[in-house]
Amino acid sequence: MEPLPPPETRIRQVTALFEGLADTYDTSDTAFSGPVGAELVRRLAPQAGERAVDLGCARGAVTFPLAEAVGAEGHVDALDLAPSMVELTAGEAQQRGASQVEVVLGDAVEPPLEESSYDVLASSLLLFFLPEPDVALTAWRRLVRPGGRAGFTTFGAWPPAWQAVLDVFDDHARRTGRRSMTQAPEVDEDQEVTDFLTGAGWSDVEHATLTHDLVFDDLDHWRRWSLTTWLTDVWMRSPVEEHPEILDRVGEVLEGTRGDDGRLHLHLVVRYTLARP
Ligand SMILES: C[S@@+](CC[C@H](N)C(=O)[O-])C[C@H]1O[C@@H](n2cnc3c(N)ncnc32)[C@H](O)[C@@H]1O
């Protein structure tokens, strides 16, 4: 396996991945960011007039529910490192007439935002793409004013069918020795997330885990969906000429998930974590 590149290179690679995905990110009819973002915001319960920040906003799965909750009197800063994500989400804010939303280009590890200025900080499905989550979490704590709150989502342990799909990709990636551009974006144990947060000075850490049912009509539906998500990175690790074989093997795994409705069901486990600065 290639050695791990330095943090700056990894941040650049992750940015390139999401820059390439910006147009289609999670636009499939099997969306997952939207329901996850809405649930995170529901748990954070932002109030009208509050100031909120969304770190790693992508296409606004968290930003827009936050904007709705804080209303026209509130304010939402949304930050992303991929310029096209910023441009498209800013355009969408304008189209929605959400003038309380400001979308900013920047690195969440060193956020170019005012300290102690937010009531609510949110970051969905970003933390474990960062090469140094502990450094980011320390910077994020400084953004929240005393008495404020933060919410994060991370992937939980992969259920057996997911693990089997990822094992197929790993098997083919082993032949190229190519590393994932993203860090393994899952942390199996709640305690590991708690330790990261408390190590960065956060307190009152609480977790809840929900399982989201991702439903696909058939294997090609799954394939098209995977290419609108971070799984593009997983595809890119394996040689293109092996993709048909990978798809066949994934198809065999997904066959085992077929429900009474005749469709394929992959369960995605998401951890919702709340904390105070
Ligand atoms: C998996 S996506 C999740 C996005 C969004 N929160 C959602 O739930 O749809 C991760 C996003 O974080 C952005 N990102 C990755 N590393 C970043 C960093 N260091 N600073 C800011 N944004 C980053 C990517 O460009 C991408 O848009």
UniProtKB/TrEMBL annotation:
Alphabetized GO MF terms: methyltransferase activity
InterPro entries, A to Z: Methyltransf_25, SAM-dependent_MTases_sf
Keywords linked to the UniProt accession: Methyltransferase, Transferase
Asked if Transferase is a keyword of the record, the answer is yes
Residues covered by the Methyltransferase domain: 53-148
Q: From what superkingdom does this record's organism come?
A: Bacteria
Task: Please give a single GO biological process term from the UniProt record.
Answer: methylation
Stated name of the protein = Methyltransferase domain-containing protein
Source lineage: Bacteria, Bacillati, Actinomycetota, Actinomycetes, Propionibacteriales
